[in-house]
Write a structure and sequence with these properties.
globular, alpha/beta, Rossmann fold
Length: 117
C-alpha cells in the first residue's frame, strides 16, 4: 500500500524550526518500518518543503506556506491507499484523516496494525 503518514508538523511548535524538525523526525521514524514491511510511505512535508523553498516561502504560515503545505497533503491522499495518523494534536493531520474517510481509504492509528496486517 501507499500510506500517507500524518501527524503534527507545525502544531505545538510556535513555529520553532527545531521543534518542527523534531515533529518531522517522528513521522519519518515510522517510514522505514513501513517500507520494510513492503509499503510505500509518504509524508507531505517531503513534497512541500522543497516546493516552499523553490517558491520563496519566508516562514511557516506565510501566504506561500498556505498555498502549498496543506493542499499537497490533500493531493497526495488521492494517490494513497491508506493513512497512518500518528499521535499528537494537529488540525492538519485531523483534516487529512477526515479527507481519507471521505475517499474511503484505510485509516490506521498504529504502525503495528499495518505491519501485522
Amino acid at each position: 500500500m501507499t500510506i500517507l503518514i500524518a501527524g503534527p508538523y507545525r502544531s505545538g511548535t510556535n513555529d520553532d524550526p527545531a521543534l518542527m524538525q523534531r515533529n518531522l523526525s517522528r513521522m519519518e521514524a515510522v517510514a522505514l518500518p513501513l517500507f520494510r514491511a513492503g509499503h510505500i510511505p509518504i509524508i507531505g512535508e517531503w513534497f512541500a518543503l522543497p516546493l516552499l523553498n523553490a517558491a520563496g516561502s519566508k516562514f511557516a504560515g506565510d501566504e506561500i506556506y498556505k498555498e502549498i503545505s496543506y493542499p499537497i497533503a490533500m493531493r497526495l491522499l488521492t494517490k494513497c491507499d491508506a493513512i497512518l495518523r500518528i499521535e499528537g494534536s494537529s488540525k492538519g493531520a485531523d483534516g487529512d484523516v477526515k479527507l481519507a474517510k471521505e475517499l474511503g481509504l484505510k485509516i490506521y492509528y498504529s504502525l503495528e496494525d499495518i505491519i501485522r496486517g
